[in-house]
Amino acid sequence: MKPQLLLLLLGTGLANFAQAQDNDAITAKKIGPYFQLEIQTTTPSGEEKNSIFVMDTGSTGIVGSAGFFIPTAEEQASSTCSTLSYSSSGNTYAGYIINRDLSFGTPGKAPTKHLKNFPVFAAVQHCPNSKNKPTCSKTPAPTCNHNPKVFMMGVGFDSPHGISQVDADQANPTNPFLNLVDDNGVPFEKQNYALTSTHSNSSSIDVYLTSTQNPLPNLGKTLTLPLSASPTNPTALVAPVLPFAITSKSNGKVVYPPTGPQPARVLPDTGISYGIVSVAKTTPPCCTTSPNSGQIETSDYEMQLYVNKQSKEPLVTLSYGSNQALGHSARWSLGHQDVSPMLFNSGQLFFEHCNYFYSPADKQVTLSCASDQ
Question: Given this model, what pLDDT does residue 234 score?
Fold first, then answer.
């Protein structure tokens, strides 16, 4: 889920300490519709609390209920009530940005990864996709609710200014996967992460953190792509760019774009179980279940990403449908005048066929996809 944040998060700098890296994988388990990790924290009163959080590669930053993080009266007095929203769901939250020491890991197991004095968003109110705006009072507006049950662990790609609007040298101050410390609270020298579901039949995703090099196997087709911010919108989503097309299942021909595969920013998003194609057009370009529907007819069409514009062989083919555990459906998102190039949010289905290794220090991501699709 890509967030549109209206807040200022204060990041913590990473010290450049040389040390052994922690390469033991943790596992995000598929619980309900989401891949989840477990976070442990200690409240200001000394109470230890645990909860599962959605591992969301489509947003950045930890967002949790104020009933879990429990901001103190002093923290509330010294912090500004801020708001954030998730564009894919329309959910908007109001809350406080506070710092906590956290540990996280595989659900049901002792946490093995640690964060020190890490900024989190403690959500006090929630308003669904409506005209009402949440506040930090205990009396929410109609259709809104107090102390919402939100547990999101955003670990996605960062723009140079991140969601915190800090200097480019501190691109990842709110990404929990990129601010790990050892048992003594010392930051790891290498901050990166790798995700793969190749050992689990998509019932879980293994997460490798602070690796000295890419720990994942080559699945058959591998690309290393640069990540760079938009020169006109430095806070826009940073994601790899690949040629994208919607093709016919019956004959394999490209249906959209009409001129053949065109560049699209690609977001592998563990936070949703459907695909989204965002375009500037205000009406669906093609391939819908009915003229007035934004739903793509997935029984007739599928999505393809290509190695390059000249290649007729796709890097990966993503075929959505009700029978797909990680990709139930796909739809258009219209009227995005600032989307350049197109944005393709693959949802979880990407991880059915591919893995990726994200190296912020190198400003690149390595994608590897199975060749036997």
Answer: 63
271 plus 170 within the same structural domain: no
Q: Which domain holds residue 286?
A: 220-370
Instruction: Give pLDDT tens digits for 93-105.
Output: 999 999 999 999 9
Tell me the C-alpha to C-alpha distance, in Å, between residue 59 and each of 3, 42, 215, 236: 5, 24, 23, 12
Considering the domain architecture, whether residues 164 and 233 belong to the same structural domain is answered as no
Q: Which residues of 248-283 are buried (b: 16+ CB within 10 A; e: fewer)?
A: eeeeeebbbbeeebeebbbbbbbbbbbbbbbbeeee
Helix (H, G, I), strand (E, B) or coil at 350: helix
Which tokens in the block code for residue 161? 């200014």
**Same domain, yes or no, for 172 and 228?**
no
Q: What is the CATH number of the domain that holds 267?
A: 2.40.70
Which residues, in sequence order, are CB contacts of 73 under 8 Å at separation 6+?
A: none
Q: What is the pLDDT of residue 26?
A: 97
Q: In this structure, are 315 and 194 located in the same domain? A: no
End-to-end CA distance of the chain: 26
Helices within the chain (DSSP H only): 66-69, 73-78, 350-353
Spans in the chain with pLDDT lower than 50: 3-21, 160-170
pLDDT of residue 373: 63
The answer on 261 and 142 residing in a single domain is no
**In this predicted structure, what is the pLDDT of residue 159?**
55
pLDDT at 235: 62
pTM for this model (two decimals) = 0.88
Query: Rounded CA gap, 122 and 104, in Å?
Result: 17
Q: Count how many domains the chain has.
A: 2
Could you please report the per-residue DSSP string of 190-206? ---EEEE-TTTTTSEEE
Closest CA to 171 of 365, 18, 361: 361
Q: How far is CA 133 from CA 11, 83, 91, 136, 300, in A?
A: 26, 9, 10, 10, 40
Task: Evaluate whether residue 214 is within a structural domain.
Answer: no
Does 125 map to a domain? yes
Residue reference for tokens 């029978």: 323
**How far is the C-alpha of 125 from the C-alpha of 123, rounded, in Å?**
6
List the one residue out of 7, 267, 36 whose CA is nearest residue 151.
36
What's the rounded Cα separation, in Å, for the pair 129 and 172?
28
Q: What is the C-alpha separation between 186 and 245, in angstroms, rounded?
A: 45
